[in-house]
Amino acid sequence: MRHALKIDDRTLSYLDFGGPGRPLLALHGGLSEAAHFTGLATALGDGWRVIAPDQRGHGDSDRAAEYSREGYVGDAAALLEHLGLAEPAVVLGFSLGGFNAYHLAAARPDLVSALVNVDATVEIPGGERLDFFDLLHALPYTAPTREELIAACGPLGEGIGPFLRPLPDGPGWRLPFHPQDTLDTVAAAFGDHWDVWLASRCPALLIHGLRSEALRQETADAMVSRRPGTAYAALDTEHYVPFQDPEGFHQAVRTFLAGL
Length: 260
Hints:
This protein has helices at about 40-45, 70-85, 95-105, 130-140, 145-150, 155-160, 180-190, 195, 215-225, 240-245, 245-260, and strands at about 1-5, 10-15, 20-25, 50-55, 90-95, 110-120, 125, 140-145, 165, 175, 190, 205-210, 230-235. α9 links the parallel β12 (about 205-210) and β13 (about 230-235). It is built from 11 helices and 13 strands. The protein is of the alpha/beta class. The strands form 3 sheets. The protein has an 8-stranded mixed sheet with strand order 1-2-4-3-5-6-12-13, with helices on both faces. Strands 8-10-9 form a 3-stranded antiparallel sheet. A two-stranded antiparallel ribbon has the order 7-11.
């Protein structure tokens, strides 16, 4: 069921899949939204209550004034506090959500019982992925018709098409994210995140796409070996692990959760 939380006059929309199980907060990647965790919620069944926000500037959540790591983490913490859960949550995040998940685990250990990082690295040198930036710069945010917006998105159109939103104040359609917000989000992720990755003490799982360009094998190996209590699961995918091998992703998460 979809709900909304007001944070500083800004709406944070989230899906609560309900159920009697233990809480799991699921944070989506960039260019994505909470609905992409519907399959995970189904796979986990009644044992886990999956709560998935549309992170700031994504899906049905309002755009924000800035896209710093502190802002994203503050939203996640505010949501967990708002829910008034009886116990800390397992926090799972893919890509952008993975960054936010391990930053949340370091900043608010009182809210996090375990961590699942899906292909989010700890090292992003500035200036990488210029082709990705070029693609974002070329994307329109709105178009008069849904078909025109899908066509304007080029290779992204097919995947984004089901998640386009009609404009609330008139004819036209919009993306479920703003390209400039995404550029700002990526820019804020540049740098070395090792200290934050190593700062939390909860049990953790790193799920790694073996052909990922975002998380190199040597970095993944070091993330596991340097952080105590970190398990590792490798899948034969590129960076987009939950989409390219959903069954393998769900099984890796289930196995980790069963061992907690």
